[in-house]
Every structure is written in structure tokens, then in C-alpha cells.
Design brief:
With about 425 residues, the chain is α+β, with helices and mostly antiparallel strands. The protein has a single domain, classed as FAD/NAD(P)-binding domain (3-Layer(bba) Sandwich), CATH 3.50.50.60. It has helices spanning about 15-30, 55-65, 110-125, 170-175, 230-240, 245-255, 300-320, 325-350, 365-370, 375-385, 395, 415, and strands spanning about 5-15, 35, 50-55, 75, 80-85, 90-95, 105-110, 125-130, 130-135, 145-150, 155-165, 180-195, 205-210, 210-220, 225-230, 260-265, 270-275, 280, 285, 295. The strands form 3 sheets. Strands 5, 6, 12, 13, 14, 15, 16, 17 and 20 form a 9-stranded mixed sheet that branches. Strand 18 (about 280) and strand 19 (about 285) form a beta hairpin. It is globular. The structure holds flavin-adenine dinucleotide. Flavin-adenine dinucleotide binds near residues 15, 52, 270 and 297.
Length: about 425
């Protein structure tokens, strides 16, 4: 069968939260965008995870008009309760002490997928579902050609920029010859929802146990999302248990501070690894989100970090004449490297149970860290994003077309630059 061939501005491979959001922003900015996702259109709707989104991420989504549809199904995090099994008790960081109304929000991953599916349909992105990357051609004539295989045959798209947003195992990254540093943690995460007889009151719990961290994130409707990290063989045993046996094992580990726990959804399992691409870009190709950096979920930072990639990349691309120009991609890579290095280093040390060095904490936290080696960095990661200290790309976002809440049409990138593409 002959492949359909066409030119476009940007091809994004991977329709997870990163690919989906980036596609919406670039299309709203006036670019011709195609998005290829190997799963079916609704494949993300069964995702059991609840994403803890830092306040800075909520602001980012709000700035571009995508927070309001999520807000009704979000639960504000009013406090983070950190403890260490067999340790010193617990420490609480609350929103009030940070001078904010909430430290972040927990949103079901499935809800983010559904919201982005609607937004993609509204922005005119060409969506190719059940479609995978087959090959990537060398760049030439200011374009890079991507061959995609889907249910209706092959598509040959010649794009000025290809974005690899296809997760930690990125085939697009591999096809571009970009190597990764990869370390598999000797741990997997089991994720499922529970209910508790005592209200969670907006508290998130992070408990460091000898087998790995255990987190309970507050969700709407009195539910909590459990992220239970343990060695793979322990996860084998726990996933084979009945729901009630699994909850009894969880209760023994977590304790009774929320009263009796009851199951509220099926368990899913995620292998955990640290992945870092050695380069962020190639000729007319760039990495974003998990394709560039996969993290341990201990501090709930992966998507927060990834959405900062999206904001910076969208800002750079939309303000450039040529979205795939080397200087545009180099500037993005440079702008992202410090944030990625730091967050990856802190989460890795937390995941491995190693003391985190003072260099990651501001002076005000150092004294506490001498005692609470794992709490200081967690506190810092959450607090700085809650208070907006993270160099969040607000000023770049200001350059993005705001989604018109009154139904008007946002100016295209071409109009804003006053030129033809
Ligand atoms: C247990 C767990 C809990 C987490 N909790 C949090 C949290 O609370 N807060 C937080 O900030 N982060 C959290 N994260 C991290 C978060 O899940 C990731 O950062 C986020 O999924 C990254 O999004 P992405 O779009 O880059 O990648 P992904 O979500 O992996 O999406 C990649 C997409 O690409 C598609 N794809 C893959 N290969 C191809 C191909 N060859 N062709 C076409 N499509 C392809 C996939 O089907 C998928 O849809 C958690 C992670 C785990 C494992």
C-alpha cells in the first residue's frame, strides 16, 4: 500500500499528557500539527493514577485555559504529612504555613486524558490513533520525514519539527540515535484507590518504609489514590491478593490515622526506572516529558517537570520563524537542563533512601534537614512550586494565545509574528 504523504509544521509522536497538551498549544498558536498515538483514542481513560499537580502546574494550566475543565474533579492538597516507618514520628507541611491556599491539586490521570481529548478535537490537531512510529528519515530541505503505521495504512509526514513525546521507552528517541542513561529501580509501584472511614481533609501522606515509599493522595469524594512502592517480588505477591487482603496489608503498613481503609478501584502496576536522555534534540527533532526524563514517582514530580518542558518548548517554538531551527531547540534544551537535573537528582536520592545533600536546600531548610534528611527536599520541591519560586515559564506563557473564554478566536502564531509561515 502506498503511504499518504503530506507536509506539516509539527509531528508529535505520543499522545500522553505531554504530547496532548503540546499539540493543543501549538495548534492554537497557528501551527499545522499532527499527533500520533499508538493507543486507541480512549486508552488513557482507565489510568488508575491520581496526579499530584504542584500549584505552579495548576497556574500553568490555568494560564492556558485548561484548568477550569479539570477543577471540578480536583482535590486541593492542604497539607503533606511525611513520616518514616520505625523513625521519628511525622512532619507536616501545610499550605497555610507556606502562605498559599493549597500546595497543589490531585487530579485523576484519566480526567486529564479526557480533557485533552476534547481540547485536541477543538483545536484542529490531526489525530492519528492506533498509530506508531515506523521510521524516521534524515533531515533535508528544512524538514524531517516520519513514517507512521496505523489502521488505515502508512502516513509519511514531512515536518519542520518532530517531537518525541512517546514516554520513557521512546521509539522516536531511539530512531534518532539519542542514547539514554537508564537505571531500573529494584522496585515497582502498585496504584489503586481507597476510601477511608475518617475524612482525609485534603492531607497527602508520604511514608518512607524500608521496602520503599508509600503515598496516599487525597481525591474528591473521600477517595485516596495509593502509590505503594516495593520490590518486584513483593508486588507480585500483593497484586495476586484479593482486594480485601491487599487493603489489610496496606492498613498494617500505613496505620490507622485515617481509620479503616476500604478498596475503591482495581490495582495497576508500574515498573520504575530513572531515564535521562543524553541529548534533548537532534536535527529537527526534540524530546519532551518522559521521553527526555523518566523519574521515580516518590515526590510526584514527573508530570510537573514534564509540563514545564511543554510550556518552554511551546513558547520557544511559537515565537520562532522556523519551529525546528537548531537555535530554537538548543535554547529549549539549555533552558530545561538545570530544572531536570535538579529534580531528577533529588527524586533519585529520595527513591534510593540516601541522604540528600544540603546543596539542594535553601538555608532556611538546612537545619531541619540535618534531622529530616528526606523531608527537607520534599518540602522544598513542593513549597517552591507552591509559592511560585520555581522559574516557571509564566512570562513565556504570556506569549501564548490565551484560550478565549468568551468564544473569540486567538491570534495565530503567524498573525502574532505578522508574517506568512
Ligand atoms: C505510579 C506513578 C505515579 C505518578 N504520579 C505522579 C504525580 O503524582 N505527579 C506527577 O507530576 N507525576 C507523576 N508521575 C509521572 C507521570 O506519569 C509522567 O511524568 C507522565 O506520564 C509523563 O507524560 P508523557 O506524556 O511524557 O509520557 P506518557 O504518559 O508515558 O505518555 C506517552 C504516550 O506515548 C504513547 N506511545 C509510546 N510509544 C509510542 C509510539 N512508538 N508511537 C506512538 N505513541 C507511542 C503511549 O501510548 C503514551 O500515550 C507518576 C508516574 C508513575 C509511574
Amino acid at each position: 500500500m502506498t503511504a499518504r504523504r503530506r507536509n506539516c509544521d509539527v509531528v508529535i509522536v505520543g499522545g500522553g499528557p505531554v504530547g496532548g497538551l503540546l499539540a493543543c498549544l501549538l495548534a492554537r498558536g497557528g501551527l499545522d500539527v499532527a499527533l500520533a498515538e499508538r493507543g486507541a483514542a480512549d486508552s488513557g481513560y482507565g489510568d488508575a493514577r491520581g496526579y499530584a499537580l504542584a500549584a505552579g502546574t495548576v497556574r500553568l494550566l490555568d494560564d492556558v485555559g485548561y484548568w477550569q475543565p479539570l477543577a471540578p474533579e480536583a482535590e486541593p492538597i492542604l497539607a503533606v504529612h511525611v513520616s518514616r516507618e520505625g523513625g521519628f514520628g511525622s512532619v507536616v507541611m501545610d499550605a497555610a504555613s507556606q502562605g498559599v491556599s493549597a500546595l497543589g491539586q490531585v487530579v485523576p490521570a484519566a480526567r486529564i486524558g479526557a480533557m485533552l481529548a476534547e481540547a485536541l478535537a477543538a483545536t484542529g490537531v490531526e489525530r492519528l490513533d492506533q498509530t506508531r512510529l515506523e521510521t524516521l528519515e534524515a533531515a533535508g530541505d528544512g524538514r524531517r520525514e516520519v513514517v507512521l503505521a496505523g489502521p488505515d495504512g502508512r502516513h509519511r509526514l514531512a515536518a519542520r519539527l518532530v517531537v518525541a513525546a512517546d514516554g520513557t521507552g521512546s521509539a522516536t528517541r531511539a530512531a534518532a540515535g539519542i542514547e539514554v542513561r537508564r537505571r531500573r529501580y529494584a522496585a515497582d509501584a502498585l496504584v489503586f484507590d481507597v476510601r477511608s472511614t475518617r475524612p482525609h481533609g485534603g492531607r497527602a501522606f508520604e511514608r518512607f518504609t524500608p521496602e520503599g515509599p508509600l503515598a496516599l493522595l487525597p481525591q474528591p469524594g473521600g477517595r485516596l489514590n495509593v502509590v505503594w512502592v516495593a520490590p518486584p517480588e513483593t508486588c507480585d505477591e500483593r497484586i495476586a491478593l484479593s482486594d480485601s487482603e491487599r487493603i489489610a496489608a496496606l492498613q498494617a503498613r500505613f496505620g490507622w490515622r485515617l481509620g479503616r481503609l476500604r478498596t475503591a478501584g482495581p490495582a495497576a502496576r508500574f515498573p520504575l526506572e530513572l531515564v535521562r536522555a543524553r541529548r534533548m534534540y537532534d536535527q529537527r527533532l526534540v524530546l519532551a516529558g518522559n521521553a527526555a526524563h523518566g523519574l521515580h514517582p516518590v515526590a510526584g514530580q514527573g508530570l510537573n517537570l514534564s509540563l514545564r518542558d511543554v510550556a518552554i518548548l511551546a513558547g520557544r517554538v511559537l515565537s520562532a520563524r522556523d519551529p525546528g531551527a537548531p537555535e530554537v531547540l538548543a535554547a529549549y534544551a539549555q533552558a530545561r537542563s538545570g530544572d531536570i537535573d535538579r529534580v531528577a537528582a533529588v527524586t533519585d536520592l529520595l527513591a534510593r533512601g540516601l541522604p540528600v545533600g544540603e546543596r539542594f536546600a535553601p538555608r532556611a531548610l538546612r537545619r531541619g534537614m540535618l534531622l529530616l534528611d528526606r523531608i527537607g527536599p520534599l518540602r522544598q520541591l513542593w513549597a517552591e512550586q507552591a509559592m511560585g519560586l520555581q522559574p516557571l515559564p509564566r512570562r513565556i506563557l504570556r506569549g501564548l494565545p490565551a484560550e478565549s473564554r468568551e468564544g473569540g478566536t486567538a491570534p495565530t502564531a503567524t498573525e502574532r509574528r505578522g508574517e506568512g509561515i
